[in-house]
Amino acid sequence: MTVSIAFELVRPDGAAALAKLKADTFVETFAADNDPAHVEAHLAREFTPARVERTLADERSTTWWLLDDGVPVGFLKVNRAGAQTEPDLDDGLEVEQIYVLASHHGQGLGSRLMEQAITTAQSEGFPSIWLGVWEKNLRAIAVYEHLGFVPFGEHRFLFGNEEQRDVLMRLRVDGSSPPGR
Ligand SMILES: CC(C)(COP(=O)(O)OP(=O)(O)OC[C@H]1O[C@@H](n2cnc3c(N)ncnc32)[C@H](O)[C@@H]1OP(=O)(O)O)[C@@H](O)C(=O)NCCC(=O)NCCS
Fold first, then answer.
1. Which of 107, 99, 83, 101 is nearest to 133 (CA)?
2. Does ligand 1 come within 6 angstroms of the Cβ of 98?
3. How far is CA 116 from CA 9, 82, 136, 170, 173, in A?
4. Residue 63 CA, ligand 1 centroid: distance in Å
């Protein structure tokens, strides 16, 4: 059997498939540690094809995905000024979402997606990329630290009625030192 991973920009006609991938990866990542009602509400609000189609049409954001023999298995969404979740951090490129299906973890796909974020930031003149990661998502935090990201702040938010905390992490991509600052 031939298995090939393709890397592509997501086009508007991919909205329904991307919405499903977003929902599936969200459940895999967060369902076990959160109130099921909060997860359900989040899925119903955030990952409808119509909503995903709107984000795909927003020129301030870009989404790529990885296809395993044509089936989407991972994606990356980056945001520029005006579309970012932290308006004051628009001197860097935001990696809002980077997700790989659990069936494909540990095969270099996350690194491949992050490399795209880095080259995009560099080609557009951003000195850094940044992201927010749930403080309980220890695997992702370990991966980001391994890739050179450094924590620099936090973002508190409500998930359902529960206050949660994202760690904000940054990676310098302009070659300046010290890394991550
Ligand atoms: C985080 C995630 C995107 C990483 O993707 P992945 O395909 O599993 O990662 P890769 O196999 O490309 O590994 C990325 C790098 O981290 C390293 N790494 C992998 N697991 C690690 C761990 N537990 N601790 C430290 N480093 C780790 C790898 O060695 C690799 O480094 P290298 O390129 O120098 O070899 C993926 O695990 C995922 O989708 N997790 C669930 C969703 C999620 O948490 N998304 C982030 C939300 S903020």
1. 99
2. yes
3. 11, 21, 26, 16, 12
4. 19
- What pLDDT is attached to residue 178? 53
Rounded to 10 degrees, what is the CA torsion of 62, 67, 71, 77? -20
Q: Which residues of the chain have pLDDT under 50?
A: 1-2, 179-181
Residue pair 99/22 in contact by the 8 Å Cβ criterion: yes
Quick check: is 144 catalytic?
yes
The answer, yes or no, to whether any atom of ligand 1 lies below 6 A from the CB of 106, is yes
Phi, psi angle pair for 17, to nearest 5°: -70, -35
Distance CA 95, CA 120 (A): 11
pLDDT at residue 180 in the model: 45
Closest ligand 1 atom to residue 104 Cα is 7
pLDDT reported for residue 4? 85
Q: Would you say 94 and 120 are in contact if contact means Cβ atoms under 8 Å apart?
A: no
CA angle 5/11/13 to nearest 5° reads 105
Is any atom of ligand 1 closer than 6 Å to the C-beta of 146? yes
**Are the CB atoms for 129 and 148 separated by under 8 Å?**
no
**Collapsing DSSP states into helix, strand and coil, what is residue 164?**
strand
Could you give the domains of the chain? 5-172 (3.40.630.30)
Q: Which residues pair with residue 129 across a beta bridge? A: 93, 171
